[in-house]
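Title: Comparing notes on inverse folding

I've been comparing how different people in this forum approach sequence design from structure. To keep things fair, I'm posting one structure and asking everyone to reply with a full sequence. Here's the target:
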């Protein structure tokens, strides 16, 4: 979702026992850049649902969100103000099936190797590294800090 140069984004670090999943983007503004699966939150969409939808669209995987590293506020390489909600997820189903128009590659990588990427290989490297730092320091928060989206129907009940 964007409004007057503000973009809302959800992204997810997906982990198995020892590795995390990263994707290589194939978009004009992030060509050949590694990132976590994620994308824009659509108008009217619940943040948690958006994170799961983006993972499914980009990777083919179903995920359960189990935590968050927080919210990140930065200016993108395209000069938009980005507010990024970053989650931690675990795979519950599906299989790797990349959205070929936007994602060229994916790989499972040891968490300790995530810090070895050069800035020029990452999309928004400062934010990526801040997320990695929070993961390593276990600066993690429970997923229940996010409330379900409030709708007119839920207000009536």
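Reply #1:
Here's my take.
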């Amino acid at each position: 979702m964007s409004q007057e140069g503000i973009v809302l984004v959800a992204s997810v670090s997906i982990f198995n026992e020892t590795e995390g999943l990263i994707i290589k983007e194939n978009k004009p503004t992030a060509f050949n850049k590694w990132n976590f699966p994620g994308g824009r939150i659509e108008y009217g969409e619940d943040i948690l649902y958006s994170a799961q939808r983006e993972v499914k669209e980009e990777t083919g995987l179903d995920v359960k969100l189990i935590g968050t590293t927080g919210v990140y506020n930065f200016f993108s390489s395209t000069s938009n103000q980005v507010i990024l909600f970053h989650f931690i997820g675990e795979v519950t189903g599906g299989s790797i099936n990349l959205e070929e128009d936007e994602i060229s590659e994916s790989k499972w990588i040891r968490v300790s190797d995530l810090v070895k990427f050069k800035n020029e290989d990452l999309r928004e490297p400062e934010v990526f590294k801040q997320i990695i730092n929070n993961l390593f320091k276990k600066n993690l928060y429970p997923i229940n800090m996010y409330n379900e989206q409030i709708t007119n129907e839920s207000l009536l009940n």
